[in-house]
Records
---
Amino acid sequence: GAGVSQSPSNKVTEKGKDVELRCDPISGHTALYWYRQSLGQGLEFLIYFQGNSAPDKSGLPSDRFSAERTGGSVSTLTIQRTQQEDSAVYLCASTLTGNEQFFGPGTRLTVL
Amino acid sequence: AQSVTQPDIHITVSEGASLELRCNYSYGATPYLFWYVQSPGQGLQLLLKYFSGDTLVQGIKGFEAEFKRSQSSFNLRKPSVHWSDAAEYFCAVGVRGGGADGLTFGKGTHLIIQP
C-alpha cells in the first residue's frame, strides 16, 4: 500500500510569512509524529498525535508552531511568522502497532 | 532524559570491507533501540530494532546489531558493504514505537563507500 506522504516536498518562503506543511499517514495508522531535521540540531521530536489529540505540545519549538490532525488521518504543521532558524526538513511518521514508525520523505523548508 | 551518541560523524569504508557503526545510549528504563538509514532526499527507513530477547538482531540489507546492556551500546554491523550502502545512519532510542515522547535520535553517521 501507499506509504506516508508529505507535501509540499520543498517550500521556499520569505521571513515573516506563514507556512502549512501537510502529512498523509498510512491509512489506518492511529499514531502520528512530527520531527524536525536541521544541521545544527539533528532530528528533534516535535509533537505526537494519538487519533486527533496531541496530549503534549511542549516539544514544539515556539508558540509560532502549531499542529492539528483531523479525522484521525491528515495532519498539518503550521509555522507562523517564519524565521530563518525554522529552515529545516520536517519529517512525519505514522505507526499502527507501535512497533515501527514509518517515515515520509519530508518537506524541506527554506526561509529567506 | 534519554540521549543517543553516535561518536563518528563520518566513516569511510572500501567496498567489500566490513562495517561497524557505533551507538551509545542513555535511558532510564528498558530501552527500545532502532537503527534507521536515510538516503539523500529520502525519509528514514528502519533497518532493525531491538525490544527484548536475543541481543543480536538481524535487519534488512544484511545489517545486524548487537545490544550490550553493560556498555549501553547498540552497534550496527555489516560484513561486506556495497556502494549502495552509502547514506546517513541514525541510531534511536525510545519506548516501543515512540510513545508520546517520540524517538530520540543520535546526530547520525555519514557513511562513504570507496570503490
---
Amino acid sequence: EAQVTQNPRYLITVTGKKLTVTCSQNMNHEYMSWYRQDPGLGLRQIYYSMNVEVTDKGDVPEGYKVSRKEKRNFPLILESPSPNQTSLYFCASSLEATVPWEMSDTQYFGPGTRLTVL
Amino acid sequence: AQKITQTQPGMFVQEKEAVTLDCTYDTSDPSYGLFWYKQPSSGEMIFLIYQGSYDQQNATEGRYSLNFQKARKSANLVISASQLGDSAMYFCAMRDDNYGQNFVFGPGTRLSVLP
C-alpha cells in the first residue's frame, strides 16, 4: 500500500529537549516536504527536499533541521524545542514534475504528528 | 503577497444543498496546478480534486467540481448535495515552478453541514 508514515503520532515534551519526528514514504517519490498546521494559518512549509542530499528552506524554517540521506526518509529535527513549536506537523511526498502535465500528481500526506512543547 | 487566498474562514450549508468554497491564487507561471484537500476532524489530509492551468474543462470528481476562472485567477470548489460527512476543513493549494514545485496552501475554510 502506497503510504507516508510518521512517528510518533503524538508527542509531549519539554522546552530544550531535542526530538526527531521520522517520515518515510514507499512510493519512490523525489519530493518530500514538512509542514506545520496552526489554527487560522493553514499549512506552512518548514523544509522541502527535491531529492537525496538536496534540501531547502520553506516559509518557516527557524528552529528546525532536516536531512535527506535516503530517498524514502526525511526526518524533522527540533534541536531545542520551544512552546511556539507546539503544532500539528505533516510530512508529505510527491513525484517531481519534470513535464507540465505531471503537475497533476498530488502530494501524499502522512497522518500527522501532534507535538506539544511545555 | 499572499499566494492563495480563501476568504471564508467558516461556512454553513444545509444538508443536500450545494455549496461553493472560494479560492483565489497568485502566480506568474503559465504552468501550474490547483488542488483541493479535505481535512476532517480526524486530521488526515484527503486529496479531492485537481485543475491544471492548461485544462480546457473544469475538473469534476463525483460530487466535487472546480469552477476554474483563469483570467480571474480563481478556483472555487463546488460541493453538490452536501452530506453531513462533508463537514471538515477545506484547503486550496497551488503548485508551480515559480515556487520550486512547492505546494502552497491557503488558510482553509471550515465547512459545517447542518441536518
